[in-house]
Design goal:
It is a single chain. By secondary structure, the protein is of the alpha/beta class. The chain folds into two domains: 140 residues, Aspartate/ornithine carbamoyltransferase (Rossmann fold, 3-Layer(aba) Sandwich), CATH 3.40.50.1370; 152 residues, Rossmann fold, CATH 3.40.50. It is built from eleven helices and nine strands. The protein has a five-stranded parallel beta sheet, sandwiched between helices. A four-stranded parallel beta sheet has the order 2-1-3-4. Strand 1, helix 2 and strand 2 form a beta-alpha-beta unit. Helix 2 crosses helix 11. The longest helix has 20 residues.
Length: 312
Amino acid sequence: MNGLSTPHLLGIRDLTREDIELIFSQADHFKQVINQPIKRVPSLRDITIANLFFENSTRTRLSFELAEKRLSADVINFSASTSSVKKGETLVDTVNNILAMKVDMTVMRHASPGAASFLASRVNSVIVNAGDGTHEHPTQALLDAYSIREQLGSIRGKKVAIVGDIRHSRVALSNIWCLKKLGAEVVLCGPTTLIPKHIESLGVRVSHDLRETLAWCDVANMLRIQLERQEVEVPYFPGLREYSSLFGLDRRLLESLSRKIVIMHPGPINRGVEISSDVADHSQSIILQQVENGVAVRMAVIYLLAQGIKRT
């Protein structure tokens, strides 16, 4: 029987706090596994998983693929650029054709918000959302929260700042829901133009002063400026140099703070824009730990969801 309260992972909003804690507990086990000489377990050797990426991805796609192979699942990788989608085939038809090959679980990234939910209501497969437009990126939020828990011991009561392009970030939205469910305080920091209206209704505060925000927080999650999603005639800020001077984190600013804070980034990093190289590589940065934890957390998610799949 499925250990989670939901048959799919479509977004953090669908998870309970108990679900998240169960994922973390399972990830603790799998993190031990991937740090052993033999990094594979036979847990899902009778499960076939298709990775469907309709948007470009490196870290997320590789992390999912590695997590699946560590669990001994059979893996199919799909790229939209070389598929029949380019010939006009619909998303549902594409996925149903793949599922006809006896695929049990589908991991999908898509540019359209809600694509994962749309698919889950129309095909007979467990769906894992690997990012849907500017909506959600649930496994990134889970690995971010897991990394905070690992670094600080717990999340409840911790002060977390999410800095940068909140408007276009699926990472920000999933992180807000995840951190709030686990009892953290959250402040969003960035230019007014990159903060969505009414975002405070999610129980967060908004700041436009980076120094003040960093002095308050225990953890700063620095988000990438997503220029590829900013297709407007009037730009959201004058230029990258101006953005960096006001909302970029460099070593001088970091070391001027009265106490040490944890630095995070979901990647890819625009070095010299939202974060300088010497901060990305600083001892207070846990960016590479986030990447490592991503494999363990995705193993946990896939393993727990697979418990609801009927073996034949």
